Hints:
- This protein is of the alpha+beta class.
- The protein folds into 4 domains: 25-155, Thiol:disulfide interchange protein DsbD, N-terminal domain (Immunoglobulin-like), CATH 2.60.40; 187-373, no CATH class; 378-490, no CATH class; 509-655, Glutaredoxin.
- The chain is built from 19 helices and 19 strands.
- Strands 3, 4, 6, 7, 9, 10, 11 and 12 form an 8-stranded antiparallel beta sheet that branches. Strands 13-14-16-15-19 form a 5-stranded mixed beta sheet, sandwiched between helices.
- A hairpin with a 4-residue loop joins strand 1 and strand 2 (38-47).
- Helix 3 crosses helix 10 and helix 6 packs antiparallel against helix 11 (378-406).
- The protein is globular.
- Its main location: membrane.
- One of its GO terms (biological process) is cytochrome complex assembly.
Amino acid sequence: xxxxxxxxxxxxxxxxxxxxxxxxxxxxxxxxxxxxxxxxxxxxxxxxxxxxxxxxxxxxxxxxxxxxxxxxxxxxxxxxxxxxxxxxxxxxxxxxxxxxxxxxxxxxxxxxxxxxxxxxxxxxxxxxxxxxxxxxxxxxxxxxxxxxxxxxxxxxxxxxxxxxxxxxxxxxxxxxxxxxxxxxxxxxxxxxxxxxxxxxxxxxxxxxxxxxxxxxxxxxxxxxxxxxxxxxxxxxxxxxxxxxxxxxxxxxxxxxxxxxxxxxxxxxxxxxxxxxxxxxxxxxxxxxxxxxxxxxxxxxxxxxxxxxxxxxxxxxxxxxxxxxxxxxxxxxxxxxxxxxxxxxxxxxxxxxxxxxxxxxxxxxxxxxxxxxxxxxxxxxxxxxxxxxxxxxxxxxxxxxxxxxxxxxxxxxxxxxxxxxxxxxxxxxxxxxxxxxxxxxxxxxxxxxxxxxxxxxxxxxxxxxxxxxxxxxxxxxxxxxxxxxxxxxxxxxxxxxxxxxxxxxxxxxxxxxxxxxxxxxxxxxxxxxxxxxxxxxxxxxxxxxxxxxxxxxxxxxxxxxxxxxxxxxxxxxxxxxxxxxxxxxxxxxxxxxxxxxxxxxxxxxxxxxxxxxxxxxxxxxxxxxxxxxxxxxxxxxxxxxxxxxxxxxxxxxxxxx
Length: 656
């Protein structure tokens, strides 16, 4: 009775992951004639609810980006301009440590081409992409465009008539689209961070003392209270307009998404690492970054003229005079906002300037509040130094990005964490008064507020230390390199365990996630399972499969699951997105799908589709040594207890 109940339970839980070919994107190609020799090729995709397709421009080390292969194009047609995409969304992926760029509901790719050879009327295009929901699917679709009849259709791989292919690159079709909007949530976050940055700038020695001076000027020079309030509001609005203008100029000069394109560029990251280090040294007191005094003098003369124009020049004078304090903050903010693309620089400057202008307007409306302001003093320099340490820490994120893109492994996770521990540890000592810097005022004691912040920084520093030994540090997920990008997957001190665990591995085996012995070749894994008489856990996965990594990081790492995977099954992980080409003699056309099987990933994807009528990843099956399924296949299953029950049921069936 218990077994019957358990079978019913499994059937209920896994009914949604029965073997099936999933096709969540329906494509509609289209061709339009623009001139006698120019044509617009359009790929319209309708995406089922809940699924999303990754953009061509998803950063490296993330999910698989969409990719085009235009067949036989070298002498028949050329690309005009950049390939464009419809509106994308952006979200940070904690698993890969990068921003995902993807489409929901609909996706459109557009490419303008020019016909060179009038006799060549057929264009054939191969589109590879990844589409994910709870599971991920790596798909390849083939399209044919007729330049004479203006017909467009989807075709089978076997219909590709010319195998001389040219993969698109930075000089052909895969380029940054000219328009790509940030998701609303990302813009809200940029605004919020910018607002906090503006508030931080307000508490620096260059800005804070100007609040009572400016407010007093408006209240004394205005004939009535209402006039003073009006002038102060104009002053605040002028501050906002000046900084928003700066954000607009950045956006217009570089384009809505050009800086976003640079976010994974090595030189971009290295240059901004240097800039942030310079900014941080300025805040720490090594030197001051100032605009020319002549600028301030000219602006002051204009401000003396009075009227609305004079008030606007007063706001400009504030921006120039306070630049030594606000410049590094603005620079950091613009770098971060610009890397998000779209109108993020404008939104960032709006948030920053609003926080900066608001106190001037409020204190002008309520002058009595000035008496509640703390007096200027050494605490202002403490704020400035605190910001310097934060900027120094952020600088190393850009250096880390450059190293990740190049895969140099010079700046791995342990080095990054060691630097952050040193920076925040030094900051804690500074806040406790154990270290002084050039512009600090002498003091025999520290305030309760400074002590409290120092304790928070110290706790954070101590929190970082276990990361050297492999702790996940979810609080700062996305800042350090991923755990897989480290000197040792076990953290500092784990190299011996790694080397000893790699001894006497059977042929074809390697150490997979969490040191689990795994095979990436089905036949070799099957032969080993027969030799040790253990069931097989067949894992259809992908290097760029988000939920595959989630299962490995959060489910397989559980001691209950890890014990089963290490001792009771033979793990065979087949990567369907492995791009390594098969030897020519092993390439073939699939009888099931008609697709050309050219790579190792193609082979395992076809194996999954042909044998199990499924094409999604992750996809798990437990087999006996005769390749018979022992339970229902399952996909993404984040519930550890359910996954454990599923594993145990398959193993129990094997033991009967």
